[in-house]
Amino acid sequence: MRRLIxxxxxxxxxxxxxxxxxxxxxxxxxxxxxxxxTEFTSPKDLFQARGTEGGNLKTLTERMAHYHTPxxxxxxxxxxxxxxxxxxxxxxxDQARPVALDSYFEAxxxxxxxxxxxxxxxxxxxxxxxxxxxxxxxxxxxxxxxDFTRQQKVTLRLLLTHQAGLPTTNFPQKENAGDPTxxxxxxxxxxxxxxxxxxxxxxxxxxxxxxIGYVVVQQILEDAIGKPFSRIxxxxxxxxxxxKNSTFTYPLDRKRQASEAWPHDEEGTLREPQMVLNAxxxxxxxxxxxxxxxxxxxxxxxxxxxSGRLLSKKTARLMFTKVLDLDPAMxxxxxxxxxxxxxxxxxxxxxxxxxxxxxxxxxxWLFGFPKTGRGAVIMTNGASGEILAMEIISAxxxxxxxx
Length: 403
Known about the structure:
It is a single chain. The protein starts with a helix and ends with a helix. It is built from 14 helices and ten strands. It is an alpha+beta fold and 403 residues long. It is globular. Helix 2 packs across helix 14 and helix 11 packs across helix 12. The strands form two sheets. An eight-stranded antiparallel β-sheet has the order 2-1-10-9-8-7-6-5, with helices on both faces.
C-alpha cells in the first residue's frame, strides 16, 4: 500500500507539472489552433471569443490546401511578448524549400502602419507637423495646386488617414522600360502607368483609401530628413527594435533571396513578385511575423507608457485615437480610422489592425489589443491567403479567450 501511495504521488506530481509547464501549455494552444480552424463566414467572427461546439473543425494543413496557399507563417503575442511563432508549408511551389521563421514575406499594406509610426516619431522630434501644408516639406516634387487644394491644404494628418483627396491607384508600369523613379510615380510619368498624385476632391471631406497618398508620405520623409526611406525605416524602427529580418530594400540581396516567399495565384500557381521598387512606403516592407510582432509589442508598450523607443505614450495614444468612423458596409464590421491604423472596439477591448494584400498573391494581417498585450501576425503567399489568415485569427482569438 505504501508503495502504491508513493507511486500515485509521483504520478500526480508529474501530471501537475505537465499541466503547469509553460512550454506544454503553449504547445497545447498551438495544437488546438492548428486543429481548430472553421470556415470563414463573416468578419464579425474575427475578434469574437465564440466557441466551436458543433462546428466542423478543420486543420491548418487542410485549409492551406483548400485555399491553394503553399506557405504560412504565424507569430502570436500574449502579455506584451512574443509567445510563439511557427512556419508552415513551402516558400514556392516549384521548390521544396520550407518556410522558416526567418523567411521573408511581403507585408503589403501593413507597411503603412510602419510608415505611420515613422512619421509620428519625427513629429515628436519636431521635424514634421501633422497639420502643416505638405508642400512646406517637399523639395523633389510638389503636390500640384488646384481648386480643391485652394480650399483645403493637404497635411500629413490627412494623408495618414486617407482623407487627402488623392486617387485610389495601383502601380502598373511599362514592360522592359526600367523602373520608374519615385518622382515619376508621383507624376504618373512613363515608365510609371499609375494615376498621378493629384487631389480629386476637397481634402478632409471624405475617406478614400489611397496607396499613392503614402508614396507622397515617403517623399516628404526623404525630403525633410535627407535620407532614403529604406534607411530612415532602418534607423528609426528596425535597428532600435532589433527587427533583424526587415527591410524596405528590394530586391533582397542574394543571401536573403533564398529565404523569400513568392506569390501564388488563386489556383496555387507560382507567380513573379510585383514589388514597386522605388515607391516603398505604401506596401514595400519585406519582413517576418516575428519581426512585426516585435513592432506590435513596442506600440502596445508605448500605449501603456512602458517604452519610448519609437513613440511616447501620448503619441501612441494619439495614433490609436479614432479620427473617423468607416462605413461598416466596406468591411462588414464597424471599423474606425486612427493615424495610419484601423481601430475596432474601445476601452479594454480596443483593437488595432492593419491588413495587407499585394498582387499577385501575398497577404499579411497584424492586430493587437493594446490594453491586454495580446495580438498576432499572419503572413501567407497565396492570393486567397487573406481569407485563410482570417480563419487563423478567429482560431487564435477563441484559444486565447480560454485564459
